[in-house]
Design goal:
By secondary structure, the chain is an alpha+beta fold. The protein folds into three domains: 178 residues, Glutathione S-transferase Yfyf (Class Pi), Chain A, domain 2 (Up-down Bundle), CATH 1.20.1050; 67 residues, no CATH class; 257 residues, Orthogonal Bundle (Neurolysin, domain 3). Strand 9 and strand 10 form a beta hairpin. Helix 20 crosses helix 26. The structure holds zinc ion.
Length: 707
């Protein structure tokens, strides 16, 4: 998952707070000057990267005020220019820089809100996010700003000598302005602004409710059968001596896959599926109603139509027919997989009268099948992926393929002791390319999923003819991997390593960004293309030679055997039909929530798609997954983008594989043709340029064993 502020999101996010009502004191004015210095200077050291994150509540408030003052002053200058004097640099580029500088402060604060262990910091960052969202709406949804841009677009831009990227930027920005409602009558435009502010505040609340959910169940020792001693030893006990099982990812997946006690799995399943419920039901219903209202005001049939307009898929209908097409193609494979599991049930698991599984049994059935018939236990595989060694191995792969050099250290400051900082340099020139903060283990109140967020986006701008200025990036990667226990180091499941490759892939996409404009850098591309690079890098984790090199048993240092590796690779095809079914449910829920209509029955939407795409499961009406489905606010109707971009990812991957997964020449071609281009070129053109043909879905189906 990728968290980033694009130009578009600046126009579409927001909440309420009047800038004028905060009285500046001297500290705050000093903060404006400090920020101006920060914006004007390139990041050159780890110290600079750490300084991007405010450390105290006071600093959060100061920076919030300072960045608003800065943006206001700069936009005033932007508007005041004589139209006859407008050029690309003083108008379009100025807009690009001002909005990016707001995004730097905003992203650092948003990141802190997701990870800070300090309640006061979380409160202050939440308030600041709301303030900045509201401010963004007021500052950028300003008709004077639009008129200034339009004057340039329809005037001097027609004859000014511009690059293809600059011209594409003008067209994209103009389309975004129109999409945002700038052509509406003034009173309706004000309503659109008000809606944007309300929606942004609700989205912040939706995510905070998920992150701070503390659901858990308690069980006695006999309720933990099937789980390993070291895992049990790491659990907390309550005052009555019962073990507490939380809904954090490592605990949940360990129990749901391996605990032989059905009652424990069942109770934890309900706790997990009901995270942030019921609070987020109302929040989501309100978001949906307001987004529907917004879309109608902007002349769209639905929010999904508004949201997908301008993406690769272009319309919700096309996105939906893409998903339905995949499901049709995978149907026979799904039936085979279900039949195989049904015939090989472990003790204690039964099917209902219609031969359907209870959802708390499927993870267990699948892992028991793998253990019994394939002699493959993900916990045994994890013994070959001790965190530190594995991460170094992963870094090694990225360093070789992308011709980079990494230095990992403990940052001089970070929000938690768990955080590490990677400095990335160009292997040949030694140029600094960026910093990546990594925060890998669960903590109370931390963002519970895995994601990557960009604070500064890498660019390569020709400042004077022939001189390219490379700006390094700063990003953070958040994950929730199992922690070390008293008797063994932290070990990663194969899935965890794949997740790390994915999120780190986003960070690399941001870091190798080589666009002229900030709004196009790295991950700032179409939403249904942004998961392509991250999903392509997951594929490195299914290569035999790389797995051999990466794995080392934490006690014996031996790599995985050839036989184990072959099995791991074969697993990709093993339940690929069910993988597509699960992703299709998520995609259809995301599309349906935002189809035409202000009032949605969220439970009915989920039930419809679960029954349609997962007919082998007994539907559980007392579960409310949407309440913790964070993508429903950030990716909104566009969850389909994961499968959509995975098709391209696999098509590209097999081309790269022919050239060599550690071959820096192949990496350079990938960066030069696709990754570095970010959003500066239509992805369809990027794909064709790389492949030398139209993209195809054959590799995707072949890779998943679907005929
Ligand atoms: Zn992702």
């Amino acid at each position: 998952m990728q968290k980033t502020f694009s130009k578009k999101s600046l126009l579409f996010l927001g909440l309420i707070i009047c800038v004028g009502c905060t009285k500046p004191d001297l500290n705050e004015l000093k903060a404006v000057e400090e920020l101006r210095t920060m914006f004007g200077t390139k990041i050159t050291s780890a110290k600079d990267a750490c300084a991007l994150f405010p450390r105290t509540v006071e600093q959060i408030n100061e920076r919030t005020f300072a960045v608003m003052t800065y943006v206001k002053q700069e936009l005033d200058k932007f508007v005041a220019l004589d139209d006859a004097q407008r050029t690309f640099d003083n108008t379009a580029r100025a807009y690009d820089v001002i909005s990016d500088n707001l995004s730097i402060v905003h992203s650092a604060i948003q990141g802190l809100h997701m990870v800070s262990p300090d309640a006061a910091i979380r409160d202050a960052t939440q308030q600041s996010e709301n303030t900045l969202n509201a401010f963004s709406v007021d500052a950028f949804m300003n008709p004077a700003v639009y008129n200034a841009f339009k004057a340039y677009y329809n005037g001097a831009a027609k004859t000014e000598k511009l690059t293809a990227e600059q011209r594409y930027y003008l067209d994209e920005l103009m389309r975004d302005f129109k999409k945002a409602g700038f052509e509406l009558p003034a009173d309706q435009f004000e309503e659109v602004k008000a809606l944007n502010k309300e929606i942004a505040e609700l989205c912040v609340m939706f995510e905070a409710n998920i992150n701070t959910d503390k659901s858990s169940i308690t069980v006695g020792r006999d309720g933990l059968q099937g789980l390993e001693e070291h895992f049990i030893n790491g659990l907390i006990k309550n005052d009555e001596g019962l073990f507490v099982l939380g809904v954090d990812y490592p605990t949940y997946f360990e129990v749901i896959k391996h605990c032989t006690v059905q009652d424990t799995r069942k109770r934890l399943f309900f706790a997990f599926e009901n995270r942030a419920y019921p609070q987020n039901k109302t929040v989501l219903e309100t978001i949906i109603a307001k987004r529907d209202q917004l879309a109608k005001k902007l002349g769209y049939a639905s929010y999904a139509a508004l949201d997908i307009d301008g993406e690769m898929a272009a319309t919700p209908e096309r996105a939906e027919s893409f998903i339905r097409g995949l499901v049709d193609k995978a149907r026979a494979k799904v039936q085979q997989e279900v039949a195989l599991f049904s015939k090989n049930l472990p003790d204690g698991v039964t099917l209902d009268a219609q031969n359907r599984f209870n959802p708390w049994d499927t993870g267990y059935v699948s892992s028991e099948y793998k253990r019994k018939f394939l002699q493959l236990d993900d916990r045994a595989v994890a013994e070959y992926f001790e965190v530190e060694k594995t991460l170094n191995g992963v870094f090694d792969i990225y360093q070789k393929f992308l011709n980079l050099s990494f230095k990992v250290s403990k940052p001089e400051w970070a929000w938690s002791d768990d955080v590490q900082l990677i400095e990335v340099n160009d292997k040949e020139t030694g140029d600094l390319r960026g910093y990546i903060f990594i925060d890998l283990y669960p903590r109370a109140n931390k963002y519970s999923h895995a994601c990557c967020g960009g604070v500064i986006h890498a660019t390569q701008t020709e400042t004077v003819p022939g001189v390219i200025e490379k700006k390094p990036s700063v990003s953070f990667v958040i994950a929730n991997f199992p922690k070390a226990t008293a008797d063994r180091p932290a070990l990663l499941k194969h899935d965890d390593v794949e997740t790390f490759f994915h999120e780190f892939g986003h960070a690399m996409h941001g870091l190798v960004g080589a666009t002229d404009l900030l709004s196009f850098s790295g991950t700032r591309t179409k939403s249904d293309f942004v998961e392509m690079p991250s999903q392509i890098f997951e594929e490195w984790m299914f290569d035999k030679d790389l797995l051999k090199n990466l794995s080392a048993h934490y006690q014996t240092n031996q790599p995985l055997s050839d036989e184990m590796i072959d099995k791991l690779i074969a697993l990709k095809k093993f339940d690929s039909g069910l993988f597509i079914s699960g992703q299709s449910v998520n995609s259809m829920v995301s599309l349906d929530c935002y189809k035409e209509g202000a009032v949605k029955d969220l439970d009915a939407i989920r039930e419809l798609h679960a029954r349609t795409f997962l007919p082998h499961l007994v539907y559980q009406p007392n579960t409310h997954r949407y309440a913790s489905f964070g993508h429903l606010t950030g990716y909104a109707a566009k969850y389909y983008g994961y499968l959509w971009s995975k098709v391209f990812a696999l098509d590209l991957f097999y081309q790269i594989k022919k050239e060599g997964l550690l071959n820096p020449a192949a990496g350079k071609r990938f960066v030069d043709t696709i990754l570095g281009k970010g959003g500066s070129v239509d992805p369809n053109i990027l794909l064709k340029n790389y492949l030398g043909r139209e993209p195809q879905s054959d590799a995707f189906f072949e890779d998943l064993g679907i005929k």
